[in-house]
Amino acid sequence: MKVINETLLNETTERAKQSPRLRMNYNFHERLDDPVNRLLNALEPGTYLRPHRHLNPEKDEIFLLLRGRVAVFLFDNEGKITETQILDPKEGVYGAEIKAGTWHGLLVLESGSVIYEIKEGPFAPLAPENFAPWSPAPEDTEGVEKYMKRLGKEA
């Protein structure tokens, strides 16, 4: 039995805090080519999750916030925010399901945030066309900082 408990959340969060990207996965699936990928994703404020979509291959994405506070954004093809939802288990808002091909992104609002994510396998790194062309690339640190501040005002 694989158990999700406070110790596992804390250990994964500590690894996220040590990571230059301020996030860390803990995979429950044993192989990347498993038909269903299941993982914890510990996220710290300041991590940049570039807006993206899961198209080619088409994959729905489902995640539950186990602790913390995260803003989820949906975008149109030009990058305009079409929907915002704050996930906060303390407020009774636990997760989201994002349909394949929908531009989306997250902004972490609280340290110690951990989501449980479920996606159809096998794992495939996102192809360049699945990253939003209207969003800054991760290496554009100044652009990323401005973009995340803008999202923070919308959260």
Automatic annotation (TrEMBL):
<dbReference type="Pfam" id="PF19480">
    <property type="entry name" value="DUF6016"/>
</dbReference>
<protein>
    <submittedName>
        <fullName>WbuC family cupin fold metalloprotein</fullName>
    </submittedName>
</protein>
<dbReference type="InterPro" id="IPR027565">
    <property type="entry name" value="Cupin_WbuC"/>
</dbReference>
<dbReference type="InterPro" id="IPR046058">
    <property type="entry name" value="WbuC_cupin"/>
</dbReference>
<dbReference type="InterPro" id="IPR011051">
    <property type="entry name" value="RmlC_Cupin_sf"/>
</dbReference>
<feature type="domain" description="Cupin fold metalloprotein WbuC cupin">
    <location>
        <begin position="4"/>
        <end position="87"/>
    </location>
</feature>
<dbReference type="InterPro" id="IPR014710">
    <property type="entry name" value="RmlC-like_jellyroll"/>
</dbReference>
